[in-house]
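Pilot study result, target chain (382 residues):
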Amino acid sequence: MKSPAELSSKLTRQWQSADMRELLLLGNSDWPVCLTIGKPGAALIKNSSALVREHLQRWRSEKTGRVEWSSVKYQAAGSAVDIPLYWCMQTIDEWVTACHDKLVGSEYDYLSEVLAKVDRPFHALIVRQRSLWKNVSIDQMVQCCELAMQLEPGCAQGRPLRALTITNIDSKFIENNRLLLIKLLNQRFNQALQKSSLEDFLGAAENNDHWLLVIGLSDGLLPFQQLRLRASELATIELPASHILIVENEQCRYQLPRLENSIAILGAGLNLSWLANPFFNTIQLAYWGDIDSWGLKMLGIARNFQPALTPLLMDDESFENNQQFAVNEVQTAGTPVPEGLTDSEGCLYEKILGLTKGRLEQEFINRKQVERVIKNWYLATT
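Predicted structure:
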């Protein structure tokens, strides 16, 4: 048989489980929730009647929830004895109160108020990760969630984080809540920031800047075969080339052909604000990225800065010719169609959103096809 204190301790331990908190606060728990108290054995009734009376009195004194009693016949007692068998809580409020634990109560109050004020996509994350909101006020948590719902990939457009003015945040709000904001954005965008920095994801100028891989596609253009330049440098300098190819992913450098007077810039991601450099208006510019919603979104961002650029291998024909390599895009860039795409690119965008396997990573396209398309672009623009 269990005392109220023992079962309260059990409930408190259950609260420490992320699965239990999620079930209680967000799940479809079947109420009432009943804990088994257990009944004393015949030997206890016979030899420890004072202990049994104390047990019964504790349960008669328990005011939380509902205690279910049953008359049980014991030979040693001579008559039936009313025994508490179950302790039942009708609601989550009763469940938390039954813990008789101040920390559980304060955490429940915090979560109840936060969940009522923030968007549903963040609920599970907040409920499961207690460390996320340790020492974070309710107002601060609500404001972070509001900010995370308004931020979009590339929305900074090259500005530093301090320059973002959203939801009335002050100049240091993002910096002071950086880790919390990253977790919220990862929750919203399917862990998209695991492979990029916050600045890269938002298209913001980094304190330590974004480094891009720059490769000469012919000898003698650069002092080294390949080097890295900061995005801030690319926004101001001129490169010694007549043709520049922008490539989304660095691993595709092995697919690029040799081209006279040409340079490739790889690994920009969403940080494309450096394309506003007037120098890029004076050369032949091409863009090659993944055929998925994010790749097409980046193409649209690039074209907004450089309307005359030529997209390569990012059309419906390229997708269909390599569809056997397509995979599921777990988290898409969503609707509507991003700005900067042509009508045909917009149709492709909508098409891949409707496919189970709508993501074709550029490194899976046949190298000979890549070389042929890039060389044709070069010859047509020389």
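One observation from the pilot: The first strand starts at residue 33 and ends at 36. A full batch analysis is planned for the follow-on phase.
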